[in-house]
């Protein structure tokens, strides 16, 4: 079977690799560097397992910038393009999805288009009507950055937003590509599938916010946050997952998805979603206040990435921490190897770790890593468990 994948971010790449184990897959991206990397057997985004699978050389996978050629003979086109939240419109920017749909319809009148990008509630029905095409299916992703391929090979569930033979075919395609022996499959109305995705990430955001608020209280009252959280997590109804304090949730998914869900509730009573967003902002302010109160002459910001094993720092909490510390008059320097240029977010950038560490009186790190161990005495972190 011939399959095309639109977008080579971590969602598109993981789907491409999973499906290319059994099918002929062509990945499409506007970025020449990403296309060249994949064709050379290198992963364009950080994912250790993806790197290993590409290194085998056994995948039926290639990449191109020629969208029309890739879509023309595809039976399925998976759409995994960015849908960033636009504060001006209070909604996701879905223009990249619609551009792909238009390209597919121009060259192929039979391909089933499977949207993997996150979309607003009600989007799929609207876009079907707009294009006069019912071959558009929404199937949400439930992936972790840096572990996207692992999560696609061993999915917790497969949700397809269409209750039909076509929906079953999409589910069978995804289930057949997985390594897990048993995968729960749910076929729903497309609008329910969209709500499932947004509620899933908003719940995770609220869980992060709850543990961060416990840690904020511990900071303020000089309590042992680890003891509090350990005791909470012994309750099986709570459990010891997603419980490690951070500077605030961030990354590509949780901030934008919770904001989009709140937008979908414009005319519906809600409190928790707004409270979660407000809690995250309050957490970042509390962390910045605690850092500033230490009175360090030079504060170093160690990395902007949100998760270990990821190279993504889009919407990371550390970026807001930098802005808040700058407002408080703190003298900053940033160490982020993935950032290009002499400055980072208006602050001086020091690419050499040793010079960075030696020149700082206090090092701020969202997560404690081995590289920081020799300087542990001057590291500020709320990392208790050494995990995301």
Structure description:
- This protein folds into two domains: 2-188, Rossmann fold (3-Layer(aba) Sandwich), CATH 3.40.50.720; 200-380, Rossmann fold, CATH 3.40.50.720.
- The mean pLDDT is 94.
- The chain is 43% helix and 14% strand.
- With 388 residues, it is of the alpha/beta class.
- It is built from 14 helices and 16 strands.
- The longest helix has 32 residues, at 190-221.
- The strands form five sheets. Strands 3-2-1-4-7-8 form a six-stranded parallel beta sheet, sandwiched between helices.
- β1, α1 (10-20) and β2 (24-28) form a beta-alpha-beta unit.
Topology:
Layout: E1 2-6, H1 10-20, E2 24-28, H2 32-39, H3 48-55, E3 61-64, H4 67-72, E4 76-79, E5 85-86, E6 91-92, H5 95-107, E7 112-115, H6 123-131, E8 136-138, H7 148-153, E9 158-160, H8 165-177, E10 185-187, H9 190-221, H10 225-233, H11 254-264, H12 272-293, E11 299-302, H13 317-327, E12 332-335, E13 343-344, E14 347-348, H14 353-358, E15 362-365, E16 379-380
Parallel strand pairs: 1-2, 1-4, 2-3, 4-7, 7-8, 9-10, 11-12, 11-15, 15-16
Antiparallel strand pairs: 5-6, 13-14
